[in-house]
């Protein structure tokens, strides 16, 4: 029997004020209205509606802002939702949860600003990530630009294309812990890609600098270094890498949501 998935929804706030939250007049970014309701409601409902998801853990500094907002108060009473307090970083918070032993694998991790997350994305990701210890969702540039040529993303160039993150991660077993621990060490340098790559060894660093590695091959190589199965999931839907990070993103997301009806 397939084990139900534990979905972790990141809904914390950074030390500095978020521009979207400030503009919307709310205390934290997950409460910013997008398409008529706080952004967190969109991915939360999608996760709860998916048959493979057993529970949703909302990781945030405090549940109080969500309890105080009538539009998100339902999250605190839902039988399949629980709130957990986050720490200094994503990786450290995840490790702290795992240490307690009450968060079963497999784990799917995504973010509160993934407003366009839908069942088709979850179907593809869980299908292709199944059997892996770690998997990461990415979108290749041609996939995005074919649908939304004006959308701007941050791209990583490899031999098999230009890739942007889709903010969906898979931790299939306890063997993922060493990689999460390494993630914790380099989390402060998440905007400095070469430092992160170099942490995985000189071959990965040189291969990336010289563009001789494919992203698929690089992720698989990292997995082998840690004695686990690591996998790239190339998302079929362009919307998988469009998150509500900037005003332009929100405008595009609301247009897409309206088109979906």
Automatic annotation (TrEMBL):
InterPro entries with a match to the protein in the record: MobA-like_NTP_Trfase, Nucleotide-diphossugar_trans
GO molecular function term, any single one: nucleotidyltransferase activity
Keyword field: Magnesium
Start and end residues of each MobA-like NTP transferase domain: 27-143
Protein name, per record: 4-diphosphocytidyl-2C-methyl-D-erythritol synthase
Taxonomic source organism: Sphingobium terrigena
Lineage, broadest ranks: Bacteria, Pseudomonadati, Pseudomonadota, Alphaproteobacteria, Sphingomonadales
